[in-house]
Structures are given as structure tokens and as C-alpha cells.
Design goal:
Length: about 475
Amino acid sequence: MPRRQVINAQVSPKGALDTLSQFEVQQLSEAGSGRMYQLFRQCALAILNTGAHSDNAKTILDAYKDFEVRIHQQDRGVRLELINAPADAFVDGEMIAGTREMLFSALRDIVHTENELKSRRFDLDSSEGITDYVFQLLRNARTLRAGVEPKIVVCWGGHSISTDEYKYTKKVGHELGLRSLDVCTGCGPGVMKGPMKGATIGHAKQRIHGGRYLGLTEPGIIAAEAPNPIVNELVILPDIEKRLEAFVRVGHGIIIFPGGAGTAEEFLYLLGILMHPDNHSLPFPLVLTGPKSAAAYLEQLHAFVGDTLGEAAQSRYKIIIDDPAAVAIEMAQGLKAVKQFRRERADAFHFNWLLKIDESFQHPFEPSHENMASLELRRDLPPHQLAANLRRAFSGIVAGNVKDKGIRLIEQHGPYEIHGDAAVMKPLDELLKAFVRQHRMKLPGGAAYEPCYRVVQGEVAKLAG
């Protein structure tokens, strides 16, 4: 990533921002030391890099090693001092309004998350405690709006997609906007931007004011996938598992577009949850879609699900090829069923409390070489458990591809090894090779992709130490 021009500036929030205590400011501003300061610095740098075409966290951090952010407490609130900040975040010396909003959203979320963890009010060893923690984080971000009927559509897919696929996501977003539906994504480029961009036009045509473009991310991802400028609500969850739970608790239906390892992780996460016996009758509209050029990709992903998880998993979603209007119609009809179901059971519209999420999907997975090699990937496992372990495997690949810590681990110890029986490893290997051929692992035009993993058929290797 080439060195870009930098600027020094002081920035105050516009509008209301919950004031920070002197102790909270001290936590953040301790002379560049401490985990929370470094976390906020990393997120702030990513937000200020909105529009950059790098998906490598290490590259971005290395390009701005001298970037600093200092937090000052004032009687009227908080002021940020930015030193050697990316100049592209400013116009005529003034920070772009959307960037300013997201910057202070990051400050809000990181301080609140840290304080909630230290308060020990939540039992993060139990499923109920983790769900309550996610609820509190979303409520603090003012994401939860009681009484609003179900209309949030989550869109998942890759940041590294073709022009044809990107244009298709905009068409689908446009159809969603025309039907007064809001869009929630991972907030970055590619599929995370296209549906939002299309929805803004659909909302404008329908004279809808206050359309929601919700972006959910986490610190390890935001550094690699800077928020796109359409996001008007940014929430930073503490880890990938809390982020994924936030998606399925807040969203009322999900559309999956073409993507790579990250998209496969999200897809397997959702399938594993929907396949839990407690969720058998719970309506959750799920559509896989893409243009004609992506038909082979969608068919391969569908075949992978059949080979590993079975026909029951395949029955939980619908595939629609090259028909944006049909996707939006399917989703709108599915949301009517969600609305009826929740009314009958007195469940909240703004948070899906009835959805059962097994603890195996909630606890953070540390993608170390030992943990990746120890994953159980066997066809004889219950489908929801196999889905959970496959999700962890893809989570590790995402970490090795784009997260700073994962990239450094690969540099030190070489590729991860993923072990399992042939019935799982063969379709997994074929899917990953297809992702590489189709340039779905990294941004097009960059350096040739170097796999951060090695698929091994057979028993789990015994690791030394």
C-alpha cells in the first residue's frame, strides 16, 4: 500500500455522544500503552482509510506507523487529536461527516465493551449470558428500535468480487429499497457496499427518509475492511462470534451473495444454527443469489453443503440466479412470516430472542496452528456440530488472509494444517481451490494469493509441545 498524504487535526463529535468519565478517558489515552488504546487506534485508522483498496491489516498498520490519536476530556464532551492521519478523510481541512460519525461510534463501542467486560455483570461462560451481552452492546449503540416491524435484511458476501457481481448486488439492493426494506452488512467494500448503494436509490424513489444502512464489524476485520461511506450506523462488536450473533439477532432475513472464505464462514454459521432441533419451525428467510456468471459458484457451494451437511441443510435456503426482483419478493414474503411468527409468540421485532444458538457457535475461536489442526471434521458428527467446526476452519483461513495477528502467525510458523476424513476434506479442498481460481481470497489485481492453509486428509496430527 503506497504511502498517502497525512494531516493533523482536532475533531469533536457533532450531536450527542454519551460523555466519557475521566477514568474512561484515562484508559484510552495512556501514552500509547494498553490494549484498549491500541484497539481504538487500529479501528480509527481503518475508518480514516475508508476508500482504500487494501484488504491486509498489516499493510495498513505498517503504512501509518506514526499515526496517533489522543483523547482529551472537555467540560462539554470529548475531543480527538489526530496526528499523521490519512488526508483523504478530510475535505478542505474538515473531516467528512460520515467519517466523523463512525470515528466516534468506534470510541463509544470500544469504551463500552471494555467497561462491560470489567463489570463482570455478564456470565460469558453461558449461552444466555453471551446473548444478553450482545443485546446490551447493541442497545448501547441505539441499534435496537422497539415496535418497528421486521424489515432489516442482512447481506453477506465477499469484498473481493467481480464488477458483474458488484453491479448485481446494487440491483438487489435497489429492489429491497423499493420495498422499504433496510440493509445490514459487514460494512466494508464489495457485497457489503453494493446493496446499501442500491437501497439508497430505492429509498430515494420511494421518498423514504431515515433509511438504515447498518454496518456490523469487529476489530480484527475493520482494519482490513474499512467501512464504506454509505454506512450510517456503525457498531463494532468485540469478536467475530459476537458479530455473527448480532447479525442473526438483529436481522430478519439474510441474502448471501458470492464471496470467499469469510462468506463461507458466515453461511456455515447460519446453517449450523438453523439446523439445531429447537429452530426447526422458526422462520428465517435465507436466499443465495448472484448473476449468471456466478451460477457455477453458487452450485458448487450448494454441492459442498450437500456433501458435508446433507439435504436437510440444503432445504433451509433458496437459490435464485440473476433475478434481483425475485430475490426481493422472496425476502419480503419471508419477512411477513417472521412478523406473524413473532406476534404469535410475543417475541420482539428488534431482537430475535427465540433463536437458539448453541454455545459452540458463541465462544471465540483462537485460530492458532494447534487449534486449527485439532478441529474435528468428520462426516459422522451431528450436522450442526460439523457446521460449527467447518465454520471455525474458515474463520482461521480468514484470520490468516486478512487479520494482522493471523498474518503474523503464518509468517512465523507457515500455513495452518486442516485435518479430517476424506468425506469432508475432499469437498473442502475443491471449494477452497475454486475460491483461489476465482480470486475470491484477495482483492483482484494484487499479489498472487499464497494459501495460509494446507488441507490434509486423515487423522489429526500430533503436535509437538
